[in-house]
Write a structure and sequence with these properties.
2 copies of one chain form a homodimer.
Chain A lengths: L3 H5 L2 H12 L5 H10 L6 H13 L3 E6 L2 E6 L6 H5 L4
Antiparallel strand pairs in A: 1-2
The structure holds a DNA duplex.
Keywords (chains A, B): DNA-binding, Transcription, Transcription regulation
Protein name (chains A, B): Helix-turn-helix domain-containing protein
InterPro entries (chains A, B): ArsR-like_HTH, HTH_ArsR_DNA-bd_dom, HTH_MetalResp_TranReg, WH-like_DNA-bd_sf, WH_DNA-bd_sf
Chain lengths: ~90, ~90
DNA sequence: TGGACAGGCAAGTAACGACTTGCCTATGCT
DNA sequence: AGCATAGGCAAGTCGTTACTTGCCTGTCCA
């Protein structure tokens, strides 16, 4: 499994997590549009590669249906953070 | 203020936070030794530069006493993470 | 007062990461 | 069947970042 810290390091990936937190189960194109509305201008491939990183980190899960690929947020890997450095 | 996500992205910096979570108020040399015991082999300057990044992110605070510089952990900036992406 | 110890500064290198570009595959609709 | 849509693959570019190297400053103590 990948590295959640590296996954969180990029602002575009954080915006993707934000978009998924607002609406789960979005496709690649829908997510790209969500980023465009937030002022970011990534290409489709850029979004795709970012989603790969998020998936490897276990923060996003993918389910395929026909020609669509839906993305779901999973924040559970983030539990490691407050467990590792307890927050008062 | 800097970026906590970028600060967390590097494994050496995370090891520094681990070392400070285990024992607060360590000097640069003490922290370097702590990393050496964890199998990392950073130079003094590398450690110094990592501490700068952590300080800019607000995760580490510094107090100077004579020729020593003590480093203290502050995990409060990490609160943003579970607030931004709620963890079930 | 001089030397050992703690740390600082700055320039250079090397590798990694984000992003693009071009082309390809697969599914659904008319 | 044919075209548009959703997505995939792979190589290449460019900027950032981690790390080194060399030298310098400041503090403490014998």
């Amino acid at each position: 499994m990948g590295d959640i810290y590296r996954a969180l390091a990029d602002p575009t990936r954080r915006a993707l997590l934000d978009a998924l937190a607002a609406a789960d189960g979005q496709t690649l194109f829908a997510l790209r549009n969500a980023l465009l509305e937030r002022g970011l201008t990534p290409t489709r491939q850029a979004v795709s590669q970012h989603l790969d990183v998020l998936e490897e980190a276990g923060l996003v899960h993918v389910r395929r249906e026909g020609r669509y690929k839906f993305h779901d947020l999973d924040t559970r890997p983030l539990r490691e953070i407050p467990r590792r450095w307890p927050i008062p």
